[in-house]
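Tokens in:
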């Protein structure tokens, strides 16, 4: 199973990039994992919120394959604790899911088309975080879930 983390937005600041790189390398010991940044449209500043989300949606939908399991991160989604995320990953692996995509939408969220396509809408927290921090938290939590599946000592209950 491949784990892909997608985020709409600009490249990571240095203070976040190193952490994301570190946790992604750790995840690769368990599952193949990679990040993909989806750049905002070139005319983003001139678009209203609805048109911006539609434009981002077109770019995202062009990348999603039919059998991908899409997890949309949204503060209004279902909350999972770390063992719950581990169980989720284990179930996807048992179901022979080829690719799980964790998607962090743009500054205004995502178009309804993406929400409807999502197989799971997941909330890291009811709080709203800067997108770059969400990337880091996502990478750490996926790594934590992997260590839980292998019964390693990283996660303390």
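Residues out:
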């Amino acid at each position: 199973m491949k784990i892909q983390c997608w985020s709409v937005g600009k490249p990571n600041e240095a203070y976040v990039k190193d952490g994301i790189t570190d946790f992604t390398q750790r995840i690769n010991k368990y599952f193949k994992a990679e990040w993909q940044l989806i750049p905002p449209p070139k005319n983003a500043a001139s678009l209203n919120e609805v048109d911006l989300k539609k434009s981002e949606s077109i770019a995202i939908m062009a990348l999603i394959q039919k059998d991908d399991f899409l997890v949309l991160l949204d503060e209004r989604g279902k909350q999972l604790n770390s063992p719950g995320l581990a169980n989720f990953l284990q179930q996807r692996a048992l179901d022979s899911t080829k690719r799980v995509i964790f998607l962090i939408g743009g500054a205004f969220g995502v178009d309804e088309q993406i929400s409807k396509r999502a197989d799971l809408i997941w909330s890291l927290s009811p709080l709203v975080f800067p997108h770059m921090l969400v990337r880091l938290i996502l990478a750490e939590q996926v790594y934590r879930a992997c260590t839980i599946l292998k019964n390693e000592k990283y996660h303390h209950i």
